[in-house]
Amino acid sequence: MSEVETEIDYGPLTVLIGVWDGGQGEDIAPEEDGEEHNPYYETIAFEAIGDVTNAESQTLVALHYRQIVKRKSDDKVFHDETGYWMWDAESDTVMHSLTIPRAVALLAGGKARREGDATVFEVSARLGDSDWTIVQSPFMRDRAKTTAFAHTISVTADELIYAETTMLDIYGRSFEHTDKNILSRRT
Ligand code: HEM
């Protein structure tokens, strides 16, 4: 980290900074006549990028992250995600923006809390919510609409466990698209 970065207090986000690898991923994704289960492995890299000031009154600290997910069955990337984790110390709010190359993006909001040795992040977004919401292309809105998103990450010193649920309206039904994994900090 540069000198500038070490001066900044990233609050609860500090524990995320670094590169994480995990090989116990379980994805449940929609299919027209059912669902597919995809065991996966992945790398998530969180980089501290400094702070920003909004309207001369709000200061956010931010991490940029990149998540690359590969199917175990063929070692091909089948999920590529990027975005920011931000923390507003004054309101103690955690924000998570993400975008995926299906033409879907969202801004989720929530909190971080301590649970024993762990820092637990819980954020969510809902289509139409006035605070934390989802944007998507017209095609996705009409054919594979993301209606809600919930994400929990629990971090101890060297282990990161996450579970996320993306609610979809697809193939004429509501589908719970879920992903979870356990990652270790790369040394
Ligand atoms: C580790 C994380 C994730 C993995 C491994 C994953 C994987 C998948 C897979 C395999 C499909 C089915 C694609 C197909 O049948 O062609 C799918 C569909 C979809 N995913 Fe994800 N996904 C992840 C996270 C997310 C997130 C965070 C969002 C949005 C917030 C999202 C939105 C969608 C949408 C909208 C579809 C429907 C498109 C379709 O099935 O044709 N996914 N995902």
Report on the structure:
The chain is mainly beta. It has a ten-stranded antiparallel β-barrel. It is globular, with a radius of gyration of 17 Å. The structure holds protoporphyrin IX containing FE. Protoporphyrin IX containing FE binds next to strand 1, strand 2, strand 4, strand 6 and strand 9. The site of protoporphyrin IX containing FE has 22 residues, from strand 1, strand 2, strand 4, strand 6 and strand 9.
Can you tag this structure with a few keywords?
187 residues, mainly beta, binds protoporphyrin IX containing FE
**Topology as a string of helices (H) and strands (E):** HEEEEEEEEHEEE
How widely separated are the two ends? 15 Å
Mean pLDDT: 96
Rounded to an integer in angstroms, the radius of gyration calculated over CA atoms is 17 Å
Number of separate strands: 11
Bound small molecules, by name, code or SMILES, are: protoporphyrin IX containing FE
Report the portion of residues in β strands: over 45%
- Determine the structural class based on helices, strands and strand pairing: mainly beta
Low-confidence stretches: none
Task: Present the secondary structure layout.
Elements: H1 3-7, E1 18-31, E2 34-54, E3 58-71, E4 77-88, E5 93-100, E6 104-115, E7 118-126, E8 134-136, H2 138-143, E9 144-155, E10 159-170, E11 173-185
Antiparallel strand pairs: 1-2, 1-11, 2-3, 3-4, 4-5, 5-6, 6-7, 6-8, 7-9, 9-10, 10-11
Protoporphyrin IX containing FE binds at residues 27, 29-30, 38, 40, 69, 78-79, 100, 102, 104, 106, 140, 144, 146, 149, 164, 166, 168, 170, 177, 179.
